[in-house]
Design a protein that fits this description.
311 residues, alpha/beta, Transferase, Pyrimidine Nucleoside Phosphorylase, Chain A, domain 3, Pyrimidine Nucleoside Phosphorylase, Chain A, domain 2, 2 domains, 13% strand
């Protein structure tokens, strides 16, 4: 099937173009993922949507199509944790240690991603082993080569497309809860609405460091998402009184040293604990954000014990 009918829907011109319905978007992305679409048509569709802004119906439809690509390929996890940030401004992936704390509480985490244009100190794959035994990481190019190809159209088009958002929404393990980080705050509401259309129940979205799910410990953090399938917007209070960026230029944080206590960095530890707390709250491991912060702190203090806390 050709992609042309869907390009016509979104690009007919002023007064005639419209957004796709969820069903139309799912059909369009199915055509793309099956390799039946001309590259020019894929580029046209994605760039028109970028210019006028995508809708929750389109994102949910695209995501529904992508989800059919991995049915039965990944074991189901408790928590889905996408990692698709790009850019040289990223620092050390402290969120990996946060995921390790969540695993220490007895939860399984499915992490998947692709991170381009990052410095060596920001590489997720170089230090993924530090995330611990309860975290599995699947590279995008392994999980779905065709999705990897669509994402890399950025190199040809020169611009980010809505497919970056779709990958964050993917949840290929079918986890009951998911956490998402965004770079642009406006996407928090968009992704929450799309997730609700897809039947997601538990979801937390924050403006995180470089677009990752990583909490700045010295700022109010507004969480968008879903709780029992209903929309939420809740604020997590700062954990520290420290005015600085989440990742400062020249920071060289050794995650192994931080985890094993060979390095003392109050801000980085607070980032790990605070990020883990938001994930634990998403999993309903603690009923309030304050109690989730306390639980994450206990997990950090007990991290070298053979047995962690039970969920």
């Amino acid at each position: 099937m050709s992609l042309a009918p869907f390009v016509r829907i979104v690009a007919r011109g002023k007064g005639r173009a419209r957004a796709m319905t969820m069903a139309e978007a799912q059909e369009a992305m199915t055509v793309v993922l099956q390799g039946d679409a001309a590259p020019e048509a894929v580029g046209a569709l994605l760039m028109v949507m970028r210019l006028r802004g995508e809708t929750p119906e389109e994102i949910s439809g695209f995501t529904a199509a992508l989800r059919t690509q991995v049915t039965g390929k990944l074991p189901k996890a408790d928590l889905d944790w996408p990692s698709y940030a790009a850019g040289r401004s990223r620092g050390a992936p402290l969120f990996l240690l946060a995921a390790r704390l969540v695993g220490q509480a007895g939860y399984s985490i499915s992490m998947h991603g692709w991170n381009s244009h990052q410095s060596a100190t920001a590489s997720v794959r170089e230090v993924i082993g530090l995330a611990g035994p309860h975290v599995t990481y699947t590279p995008l190019e392994t999980l779905s080569p065709v999705a990897f190809g669509v994402l890399n159209l950025r190199d040809t088009l020169g611009l980010r497309s809505c497919f970056n958002t779709v990958l964050r929404m993917w949840n290929p393990s079918g986890a009951g809860a998911t956490v998402q980080g965004v770079f642009h705050p406006s996407y928090r509401s968009l992704q929450a609405q799309a997730a609700q259309m897809l039947g997601q129940q538990e979801l937390s979205i924050i403006k995180g460091g470089g677009g990752e799910f990583e909490r700045h410990p010295s700022k109010d953090i507004v969480l968008f998402g879903l709780r029992d399938g209903g929309h939420i917007q809740q604020t997590a209070a700062p954990l520290l009184d420290d005015t600085r960026r989440l990742h400062e230029a020249g920071d060289n944080i050794d995650l192994s040293d931080l985890w094993h206590g060979r390095a003392d960095d109050t801000f980085s530890v607070a980032t790990v604990i605070g990020t883990a707390a938001l994930a634990l709250w998403t999993l309903k491991a603690a009923p309030t954000l304050i109690q989730a912060d306390q639980m994450a702190r206990s997990l950090w203090d007990l991290r070298h014990q053979t047995r962690g806390l039970s969920a």
